[in-house]
Specification:
mainly alpha, 3 helices
């Protein structure tokens, strides 16, 4: 009886905390690090200063946020850029298509 049970989320076992790749955590850490450095140099007396200090951490957190059907927002942006920068006219060359004028090619 060769019954094998394969869980649907086998890829999550290779992720850190089941959600993040190593690159995702590095990106988030760099965003937090930049925010901490800005925190020491920019005074937080105004709303603009607070937004400027928190922007790198917030942007990096949004980029690594999980999204259904994709890994995270960063992957969605990569796929969008790849789609927009490649050929948009797709030529059908399937088995039922006529390749030439007379269909003999």
């Amino acid at each position: 009886m060769n019954n094998y049970l394969i869980p649907a989320n086998t890829n999550r076992g290779r992720l850190i905390f089941g959600l993040f790749r190593k690159e995702d955590l590095i990106l988030f850490g760099v965003g937090l690090g930049i925010s901490f450095v800005l925190l020491t140099f920019i005074p937080m007396t105004s709303t603009g200063g607070a937004v400027l200090v928190l922007a790198p951490a917030a942007i990096s957190a949004l980029l690594v946020a999980p999204v259904p059907y994709y890994h995270n927002i960063l992957n969605v942006l990569k796929e969008l850029i790849e789609f927009l920068n490649h050929r948009q006219k797709y030529v059908w060359k399937g088995w039922c298509s006529n390749y030439g004028e007379d269909g003999n090619e």
